[in-house]
Design goal:
Blueprint lengths: L1 E5 L9 H14 L3 E10 L1 H12 L7 E5 L5 E9 H10 L4 H16 L7 H18 L7
Parallel strand pairs: 1-2, 2-4
Antiparallel strand pairs: 3-4
């Protein structure tokens, strides 16, 4: 089951049905079964505190993924800073809905076992993100 929570944040025109459908398909396409996934949208400050507390990192990030995957069932909690999503969309000159999808897919790809610490791993992660953006996000939202 895929669930969404919003902590002191609102996302205009958020479409949970779209994310449930595309994430379920992404998980199946990667050869896994869907377990329990919670996507929690938060502020920059909230995620910064989580980053300090859980990872000993003192910097802003767009997502922190907690992986609870067991066997072939993808499960976890994704904490996403919507503030970072908006800043990233400006920095990379993409619409905010496209960047939101990229970050959510990025977190689920982590749950599927993809890493991004080495340049080779990051290249594969970016290719997977692009593949799923192309597959699920309409051309109109990619501009």
């Amino acid at each position: 089951m895929i669930e969404f929570e919003f902590l002191d944040i609102e996302i205009p025109e958020f479409k949970p049905e779209f994310f449930v459908s595309s994430l379920s398909d992404l998980i199946a396409s990667e050869g896994f079964n869907e377990g329990d996934i919670t996507v929690v949208f938060v502020t920059d400050e909230y995620l910064l505190e989580m980053n300090k507390t859980h990872l000993n990192h003192d910097y802003y990030t767009d997502i922190i993924t907690f992986d609870y995957t067991e066997s072939n069932f993808i499960s976890g909690d994704l904490f996403i800073s919507y503030d970072r999503v908006l800043d990233n969309s400006k920095e990379f000159n993409v619409c905010s809905s496209n960047e939101l999808c990229r970050v959510v897919y990025h977190g689920v790809l982590h749950l599927c076992g993809y890493k991004d610490k080495s340049s080779e791993d990051e290249k594969l992660m970016r290719a997977k993100e692009s593949f799923y953006l192309e597959k699920y996000v309409s051309r109109e939202t990619l501009s």
